[in-house]
Specification:
The chain is an alpha/beta fold and 196 residues long. It is built from seven helices and six strands; from the N terminus they run αβαββαβαβααβα. Helix content is 38%, strand content 15%.
Length: 196
């Protein structure tokens, strides 16, 4: 089967603990089977598989896109009090892709600082860090656990628009994209309709 010009930009591997089942070698083999020119690796909060992914993809003639689905603190990465006991969000999801070497370096900084400074149940970054380390990074609004999709699910469309403007301010209008998924989840249908 041939799929021209389709590229997965949100993919989890076995390095996404309890969330990914794809083995990197099999992922690259499958991308080759479908004649995909490129594929991204966006594990949850980590970049443990980046080197293996890059090596396997290059060896197979596939362009590797290194990324991460980071956990974003609702307020500050330093805030470790809000959350589970109040049934509030402790983090949102945000998909980040390295556009170039500077983006790769910044992505590594973000992931490292998520562990060193923002860890609260998960390694979290915040918008302060995103503003500081945004160069060379392309951002996607994320799955239904993203900040914009969560607002849409809660019928807070004005808040979603405000957050969208904030992300465009952080990453630039050419480096921030709304992420559409079709996972079969009812809330996803509502989110996709609003995003479109």
């Amino acid at each position: 089967m041939k799929i021209d010009n389709f590229v997965h930009l949100h993919v989890h591997s076995e390095y996404s603990l309890l969330d990914g089942a794809s083995r990197i070698k099999k992922l690259i083999e499958r991308a080759c089977e479908f004649n995909m020119p490129a594929v991204a690796l966006t594990d949850h909060g980590v970049m443990y598989g980046a080197i293996e992914f890059y090596t396997q993809a290059k060896k197979s003639g596939i362009k590797p896109i290194i990324g991460c689905e980071v956990y974003l603190a609702p307020k500050s990465r330093w805030d470790k009090q809000s959350g589970r006991e109040k049934k509030e969000e402790t983090s949102y999801h945000l998909t980040l892709l390295a556009e170039n070497n500077q983006g790769y370096q910044n992505l590594m900084r973000l992931v490292s600082l998520g562990f060193l400074e923002g860890f609260y149940y998960k390694p979290r970054v915040d918008k302060e860090l995103l503003r500081e380390f945004n160069e060379g990074i392309i951002a996607l609004s994320g799955c239904i656990a993203g900040e914009i999709p969560k607002c849409i699910i809660l019928d807070k469309i004005k808040s979603a628009k405000k957050i969208l403007e904030e992300y465009i301010d952080i990453f630039g209008k050419n480096n921030f994209f709304l992420e559409l998924q079709d996972s079969g989840i009812q809330d996803q249908k509502k989110v996709n309709k609003a995003l479109l």
